[in-house]
Amino acid sequence: MSVERKRFDCSALPKGWQREEVMRKNGLSAGKVDVYYYSPDGRKVRSKPQLARCLGDVIDYGSFDFRSGKVNNLLLRKQRKQRSSQVEYSRGVRTDASLVPPIRQTASIFKQPVTVYKTQEGKVKTDFKHGPQEKPKQLFWEKRLEGLRACDTDGHELRAMELPRGLKAVGPHVNEETLLQSVATALHVSSQPITGQTGSRTSLDKNPGVYINPDQPLVQALSVGDEDIKRQEDRVHSARLKLQEAIKGMLA
């Protein structure tokens, strides 16, 4: 393939660097010009990344045009403008948007302030630079288990557990089944005492996303006294006696 080569000194690069233009004479790519650079020791450079590996931080590659071998003034001014804006930003010239109350905008002529609730402290970390982050807890995630039933080996549904009358569910559309799943999950997962929801029932039903504590099950807070403990101990003792009698009947 016939080509025409022209080599010049490149003033934008350090002393000794040359720029070569290779024009193709024939074929489908006739008239196309390929650009190469040669180092003072004769190394051939075919691309800007390769040029950066050879020269390091000697020049500003963001404003250097590889095709023409010149510094692009438009890119250079743009970079200087970005740097100056970053300096102004770091000096605090801007207005802090976090200090401005949020605005709900439904139309260009209709704006209303948003009510911000700060009664519930979140545990989600905002620093994304150090280590894995704690996932936010999903409120009412136990409701996903509604409709599921435990079955025996023959496929027959097991009888649902009867809850004490003192346990009352809180939250919109929370039934006893969801309450049982919520309490069981809290006993299995949570490492803190189970106290239930301490807010008023009205506020919990009206705005559960704000007033319900996600670390506690969906049950109204209640106090357990000595009589309740004694009654439960008697039930456990009675269940153990029945179990012993059943085992004796099997062994007889």
From TrEMBL:
PROSITE patterns xrefs: MBD
Span of the signal peptide: none
Pfam families, alphabetized: MBD (PF01429), MBD_C (PF14048), MBDa (PF16564)
SMART domains the UniProt entry points to: MBD
Transcription regulation is among the record's keywords: yes
Molecular-function GO terms, alphabetical: methyl-CpG binding
Protein name: MBD domain-containing protein
